[in-house]
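for the writeup, i need someone to sanity check this before i put it in the appendix. the sequnce is what the collaborator sent (i think, or maybe the updated version? ugh). structure was predicted straight from it, no edits. if anything looks off just tell me and ill rerun, i have time this weekend
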Amino acid sequence: MKLERGWTKVDAPKGKLPAYLTRPAAAKLPLPGVVVIQEAWGVDEHIEDVADRLATAGYVAIAPDLYARGGERPPAMSKQRMAATKHFVDEAGPAVFRDAMARETALSGKPEAERAVLAESLALVSAVLGQSDTLVDLAQAALDYLRAGPSRGHRVGAVGFCMGGGLIGLLAVTDAHLSAAAAFYGMPPPSDRLPALTAAFVGFYGGPGKDPRITSTIPAFERAAGQAGKRVECHVYGDAPHAFMNDTRPSYHVAAARDAWARMLGLFASELS
């Protein structure tokens, strides 16, 4: 399918926010819209590909660059630096984010100049992961952009991955007009905020033994959502690891990715039409 795609600017707190925007070229606007929220690596080839795949399904999709608050990313979080950091984490394992000793051990095997560059980028990403709730306003700005223009008069939804999956939960309990929320392996929203959830929420998670930090929180979230009478559906893929949707990483799990993608499209088809 021919797509009309490229970068635009979204009005956001503290200035314009760059965002990747894509839609089917043969379809007239407005169209139902989907905001795509990034992983820790920023809006990279994987996130752009997710947005393009949504566009081929008939939506206008936007992926705001959450690392570019105020207009541009800090140098340590440039696309090139994030790609190198992702490669390092794929080699060393995700423990390097939260375990200082594991991080130092893994970095010690790198040349001094490369070690310093990786350490700086890792520190910034780790800090963002620890305060990712401060990015909800930027995700909200992308939603507002769709509603005011490309999706005017249509429903909008959102999907996010890892850090973005956690932000999807927070966005869903912040924006009362969000119609559908799909969260991939992200922390669920706090139970005490569930009364504010109005969107249909579907979550996709790795196996309990593969991604225990996140998946272990899901049973309690499901119980709380059920008690609150909310539309919440969670799918756990027992043999899939964290980040099983990302086909640019060793974590990619084709069976889980296939099933989750089909269910996500079903969610958007039913809630955004």
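Residues 3-69+134-271 form a domain with the Rossmann fold fold (CATH 3.40.50.1820). The mean pLDDT is 96.
thx in advance!!
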